[in-house]
Write a structure and sequence with these properties.
Largest sheet: 10 strands, mixed
Number of strands: 12
Oligomer: single chain
Helix content: 10-25%
Order of helices and strands: HEEHEEEEHEHEEEEEHH
Radius of gyration: 24 Å
């Protein structure tokens, strides 16, 4: 019996040993080729589609400017209902302008449901590898390095993006956080990244509520020097109930498209607030270039306006659609008045924090539930 076992063992070693012996060499070759740049994108087992995010194929019409282009929209804030606004904007971009869109959400990993109060998980960021542009609407996330590297790769490539409202302060890491991205935190105070990602890349971090929060609305006033900007084509009567943000660090290289007029009240018919708050008015919408060290040059558009209820305003929706054309280099194709119909079932929630920490868990929201019809 022992001789049979010994012979069988010899057969295993002689027949399969060379095969197993090659495996470490294959792995080493792959790592070496990737490090040398021979393999641009490692093979990923991460899915293209999932119940944890939305995928909206662009309308199959080669005449649409967004045909063949992909935008990834990333939501994740506890206050302004980005999880409601971005699916609506994606629907307009896909159905009326031809962009394929993915919408990502803060997902509670225990329940698999949308939970803006969960600060450390946004599945699907690998889709940025295939994106032509990104729309970012997040607030003070503390994402793990495994997800942050997907964002870093996007920005290193110099891809264009749009930052909405709280995206001036998109990341927050405490002093004891174990992360390679602590300098991205909105309150970073050292070196070249003072003010974190927002101030360094977008042009501003969190500063203040310049107008009275939930007491003084915002009216968008087009900057005189930007009257002919294609991004503002057909954009008029921009108004929203969110207040004007304080903006004090914007570099001179930024181009201000629109300023935020503090309104003395919460209705479109209310007059401007008299006094120094509007002298001068704060920047509301701007564009600027950005570049990571060792990376490619990119461009960003920021609007500090943009709650889910703000986007009931036609002018603000058109601004986002026009800016999407701009991001992918299709400015010449921006219509005189881009089609931005509001889906009939879009009934956004008013902004504000939820005092019940389990509010979203109790609602049991799946990404598909947030897609307006």
């Amino acid at each position: 019996m022992k001789s049979y076992s010994y012979c069988f063992l010899l057969w295993i070693v002689s027949t399969l040993g060379p095969v197993f012996g090659q495996l470490p060499e294959i792995k080493r070759a792959t790592r070496s080729a990737t490090a040398a740049g021979a393999i641009n994108e490692p093979v990923s087992s991460e899915p293209e589609n999932s119940d944890l995010w939305l995928t909206l194929p662009g309308k199959n019409d080669a005449n649409l400017a967004g045909h063949g282009k992909r935008i990834v929209l990333i939501s994740g804030d506890e206050e302004y209902r980005s999880e409601e606004a971005l699916p609506m904007l994606a629907k307009i971009l896909a159905e009326h302008h031809g962009f394929t869109c993915n919408v990502l959400f803060s997902i509670n990993p225990t329940t698999g449901t949308v939970d803006p109060n969960w600060l450390t998980n946004i599945p699907g960021l690998h889709l940025l590898d295939k994106a032509d542009a990104m729309i970012l609407f997040i607030r003070m996330r503390s994402l793990p390095d495994s997800q942050m590297v997907q964002l870093e790769k996007f920005f290193q490539a110099g891809k264009p993006f749009m930052a909405i409202r709280t995206s001036t302060h998109p990341f927050a890491y405490g002093p004891k956080a174990k992360t390679s991205f602590k300098h991205w935190s909105f309150d970073h105070k050292e070196g070249d990244w003072v003010g974190g990602f927002g101030q360094k890349i977008i042009g501003e971090t969190w500063v203040s509520h310049h107008g009275i929060h939930n007491g003084q609305a915002t009216r968008g006033i087009i900057s005189e020097s930007s009257q002919d900007s294609p991004i503002l084509r057909g954009v008029a009567d921009v108004f929203g109930p969110t207040d004007v943000y304080g903006v004090v660090h914007l570099p001179e290289s930024a181009k201000i498209l629109m300023r935020g007029q503090v309104v003395d009240g919460m209705k479109p018919s209310d007059p401007p607030l008299a006094g120094p708050k509007n002298e001068p008015m704060m920047p509301l919408v701007w564009t600027k270039e950005y570049q990571f060290e060792g990376g490619e040059k990119g461009k960003v558009l920021c609007t500090t306006m943009g709650s889910a209820v703000d986007f009931e305003n036609e002018g603000l929706r058109r601004l986002v659609i026009n800016a999407s054309y701009w991001m992918v280099g299709k400015e010449i194709n921006i219509p005189e008045k881009a089609d931005v119909p509001l889906p009939p079932t879009y009934k956004p929630s008013y902004f504000g924090f939820k005092k019940d920490a389990d509010h979203f868990i109790k609602r049991n929201i799946k990404p598909f539930d947030l897609l307006p019809k």
